[in-house]
Amino acid sequence: MFFVRTAGDEDVEKIRVLLGETFHDAYDPFYGADQVSQMVSGWHSTNAIRSRIGKRDGEFLVADDGRKLGGIAYAAIYPKMARTVMLHQLYVRPSCQNEGIGRDLFAEMETCFPDAEIMRVEVALPNVRAMSFYERLGFSEVDRMEEWGAPNSGLPAIIMEKRLQQH
User: What homologous superfamily does CATH list for 3-163?
Assistant: First the structure.
């Protein structure tokens, strides 16, 4: 049984390992292991994770069973659009997928930003599994972009949005 809670500094290494595992599982087929390794080392360094956990307008959640993390989610207020939250990460360990962990993480994340009206997420274009997951949660495509994850990445993506319930 996994419980969703706010991440802390004690989780940084477990988060880093989980992100490496999930990124390789999700993206190696599209981008190759070498490119994914570069993404992981740049985007998911210990310092990058620690700064996300401490971000003032953000929320970093983990699904924890007391022994291991089954998934993580990170979102933050999107400064470019009023009342919008950007879901930057939602990843579930491959061995824990299809157990409802992603749904539980998202359900908790939806409650973390009571003033937000919209949640956005960017999904790498080849990641049909993720697009389907977000569609089941009520997201729909609103735009496309050429540079997913980082400038000059060359990785196209779609932008999906969901209107949030006002609390």
Answer: Gcn5-related N-acetyltransferase (GNAT) (3.40.630.30)
